[in-house]
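User: I've been going back and forth on whether these two constructs are worth ordering. Before I decide, could you fold them both?

Assistant: Sure. I'll take them in the order you sent them. The first construct and its structure tokens:
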Amino acid sequence: MQRNELQHWIEREGRWEFSRAGGPGGQNVNKVNTRATLRLPFESLPVPPHQLAAARQRLAGRLTNEGELVVHASQARTQLANRRHAAQRALELLTAALARRARRAATRPPPGAVERRISAKKRHAQKKRNRRPPEQH
């Protein structure tokens, strides 16, 4: 899914809630609902089921029991700026969750590392052997 399509989906499907925010703002912070909360119906994300399942797993800690992705923003002193922050953060979260992960390239340990590992094992085995009581014949 393209980033701009995702942005349109957020604007279309998102539900906004506003509340009083803490932090700087003086008297304004006590009177005006500047904190923005964006609620997105995650299950209605227009992506194939396998992508949705992968994204659900990656965002598991951020989803509510109702299957909503919730993003809060209260850094700015204005509601409009906080709306923009929340929408931007939701876009970044969804983009990262839907991105394909690169496969790890298989590597082999270099010969020097193998040699060091084996010599360390031999030293350890020798240490254990030295702790044994001498054999009685």
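The second construct, handled the same way:
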Amino acid sequence: MAAPAQPKWVENLTAELVIPTAEEAWPFLEDYCNLHKFAPDVIDTSHHVEGICNQPGLVRYCAATATRVWDGRLQPKQLWVHEKLIKIDPIKKSLSYEVTENNVGIKTLVGTCSAYPISKESKQGCKLQWSFVADPIPGWEQAEFASFIQAMLTSMAKNIEDTITAKKKKTEDSKTLSSVAKSIEDILTAEKKKTEDPQTLSFIQAMLSSITKNIEDILTAEKKKTEGLKAEDPQPAPVY
């Protein structure tokens, strides 16, 4: 007589971001093959395996180290999974995936990650949600596995919050810098109009040129740093 089927594991996990909106957080979730960048405390690495970026059928490889009882003793072990994107909806800011190959013991698991406002009235902040339905995983308790996923989600939320907050601060600093530079330029331009002395004119012109160049250099450097925070295109995966 066959053993009765065990009930599915069903979990709905969340993490809250204080400042970023769902619109600002979504591009990080959408950056499907770079999960390790936004959960570095938990994910060792992640990369593209096959498929087209942000299209169903896209497969990513993720690896994380779990320290727990393995083979009768407490020790670390690197776990890896292939996760195939099965649905993505930028309007609803949601994506779903299924686990295929893995060394965790997962038979079936379908997960959904999404970003949504805390409330209709909220102008800032959002929640990240990571839900999944899975067959029981041999050697794991449901609560333990859910805690592992929650740790990834919490790490993602913190790093997304920090990245977006830093980006906003740099933008505000750049605006302030530009405003101060404009005021100085206006003062020097006004002084330039008041004098006809060649030496004074030459000095003022040199000051204007120097200020303009320094501001341009600073803003260019900040722009490069900001662009470095953007999602990278998935790269071909190494062969295992």
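Notes on the second construct follow. The domain at 9-164 is CATH 3.30.530.20 (Alpha-D-Glucose-1,6-Bisphosphate; Chain A, domain 4). The longest helix spans residues 142-194.
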